[in-house]
Amino acid sequence: QMQLVESGGGSVQTGDSLRLSCGASGRTLSHYAVGWFRQAPGQEREFVAGISWSGGSTTYADSVKGRFTISRDDAKNTVYLQMNSPKLEDTAVFYCAARYTIRDVCPSWYDNWGQGTQVTVSS
């Protein structure tokens, strides 16, 4: 069973940057696609970014394109979400999720989830 743990959340001001980490234990992330999601208070969880198992394919929500970057370091069994120029509306609990995939694609659903890390953006 894979356990995912998010870290790096906290308070940040608009215009600053923050890097979230998603560490895996129990299993290697090799051949797992990983996605980042977020849930703001009173809203449904939404997709933020995804990366295929090789890192060769990435996808982003329109709201974060050009500001957020997802990357992975399989040697460290970790996936990152670099958040540049965060906006007030980026305030949310951020979750990472993983799914074993044979094809090197970003899947539409995931079956391993972390507990989340809070990101609060202020002006």
Give keywords.
123 residues; mainly beta; 7-stranded mixed beta sheet; 4-stranded antiparallel beta sheet; globular
Report strand %: over 45%
Biggest pleated sheet: 7 strands, mixed
| Helical residues, percent | under 10%
End-to-end distance: 40 Å
- SSE topology string: EEEEEEEEEEE
Q: Average pLDDT, to the nearest integer?
A: 97
Which secondary-structure class do the elements indicate?
A: mainly beta
Q: Give the beta-strand count.
A: 11
Shape: globular
Low-confidence stretches: none
Explain this structure.
The protein is mainly β and 123 residues long. 0% of the residues lie in helices and 53% in strands. The chain is built from no helices and eleven strands. Strands 2, 4, 5, 6, 9, 10 and 11 form a seven-stranded mixed sheet that branches. A four-stranded antiparallel sheet has the order 1-3-8-7, with no helix packed on it. The protein is globular, with a radius of gyration of 13 Å. The mean pLDDT is 97.
